[in-house]
Structures are given as structure tokens and as C-alpha cells.
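Incident log, structure service

09:12 report received: a user says their structure output differs between two submissions of the same chain.
09:20 pulled the input from the user's history:
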Amino acid sequence: MAPMKSKSWCSPGQLLMLMLAGWINRHQQAVIAYQKEEIKVLREMLGGKRQALDAFTPKLRNRATGGLR
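09:34 re-ran on a clean worker, output below:
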């Protein structure tokens, strides 16, 4: 009789990729949380100057979209 192969959920390569994807996701979430907090602190530092920066928003949006809008 031939030895029975165990049916695993995924191959070792797939398991490695799943672990890597999980690590990358956690890292990205940590970076996003840090950036959100940084933006919050910078906005508090700017205070009332926020309105002056709003004039640049359309220009920044145009540059970010490559002039598509």
C-alpha cells in the first residue's frame, strides 16, 4: 500500500506568502495610524492657518491626478 498523503490546507509556499501578507498588513496599519496621529498634531499646530492652506487644495488635487480634472 502506498503511504497516504496528508491533505493540508495550503502548501508551505502558500503559508509563507500568507504570513508575509499578514505582516505587511500589520505594518501598513501601524504606518497609517502613525500618519493619522501626525496629521492630527500638525493640524493642531496650524490652528487658524488651516483656511489659508485650503486655497492650495485644488492645485494639489490637480497635480495628484496629473491634470485629469
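09:41 both user submissions now match this output. Likely a transient worker issue. Closing.
09:42 reviewer note: Residues 41 and 47 are 10 Å apart (CA to CA). Residues 12-46 form the longest helix (35 residues).
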